[in-house]
Write a structure and sequence with these properties.
By secondary structure, the protein is an alpha/beta fold. It is built from seven helices and 14 strands. The protein has a single domain, classed as 4-Layer Sandwich (Metallo-beta-lactamase, Chain A). β4, α2 and β5 form a beta-alpha-beta unit. The longest helix is centred in the N-terminal third of the chain and has 14 residues.
């Protein structure tokens, strides 16, 4: 599997402190940064968007992607998430007030996007992979995703503070190659991090004690760019050799 980091924190590319990962050119995990990075030809290749939650830094480019794909793509892009998250997107973004409802444009039989609700804990086949949504602990309804690509699996935990279920699922598998997890604030802002449902390097380190697996690479994203240097320094103090901070634009092959 090839994972292209379209957006992860914005320290290298100011203004790109939004989240989006592109899997094998076809599937997005979140869509905070898409149209400003990908060409129209690359955008047309996208078939599915797995949404972790409704916050703008994770969904804003669904709107612009839909606009770009009008009359450019023969089949709709599936927006996949829980029913609760989809309901928020429909009522607050694709509501024909903030943005046109591209699930009925150009018409309801041939829409640009199609909302596809899934249930947490159930497996779904998707473009040659199997996905499972898992509830995590953020300030709004949020899921992480286990992505099984046949020869291994990758876990995208999404925005979260301390959580439980996704670690139980990870520990029950023996094929986890990588885990993508957020770290948003420096250690001296733990009160803000806890209130906002995020991690600091110290609280992340404590959270990782729930992971019994030793082999997966841990990739960090969602670092607030104004605190990037401090967070990076504090991450460097963690006594784990499998943690790395992501960079915008990089490709990860798993």
């Amino acid at each position: 599997m090839e994972i292209r980091v379209l957006g992860c924190h914005g320290a290298q590319l100011p203004g790109y402190n939004t989240t989006s990962f592109l899997l094998d050119d076809k599937i997005l995990i979140d869509a905070g940064t898409v149209t400003s990075i990908l060409t129209i030809e690359e955008q047309i290749e996208i078939d599915n968007i797995l949404v972790t939650h409704s916050h703008l830094d994770h969904v804003k480019d669904i709107a612009f992607l839909a606009d770009n794909l009008l009359r450019q793509k023969q089949s709709p892009v599936d927006i996949i998430s829980t029913q609760g998250i989809i309901d928020i997107l429909r009522s607050n973004l694709f509501n024909s007030v903030v943005w046109p409802d591209f699930s009925v444009i150009p018409d309801e039989h041939n829409p640009v996007i199609r909302f596809r609700p899934i249930e947490p804990g159930r497996q779904y086949a998707l473009n040659g992979i199997i996905i499972t949504a898992v509830m995590v602990n953020h300030v709004v309804e949020t899921v992480g995703y286990v992505v099984d690509f046949g020869t291994g699996s990758v876990i995208f935990i999404g925005d979260t503070g301390p959580t439980e279920d996704i670690w139980k699922i990870a520990n029950a598998r023996n094929d986890v190659k990588a885990i993508f997890i957020e770290t948003s604030f420096p250690n001296d802002m733990i009160d803000v991090a806890e209130a906002a449902g995020h991690f600091t390097p110290a609280s992340l380190n404590e959270e990782l004690t729930k992971l019994s697996l030793e082999s997966p690479d841990i990739y960090l994203y969602h670092l607030k760019p104004q605190y990037y240097d401090v967070i990076k320094r504090e991450v460097g103090l963690i006594k784990r050799n499998n943690i790395r901070i992501l960079n915008e634009g990089e490709f990860i092959h798993i």
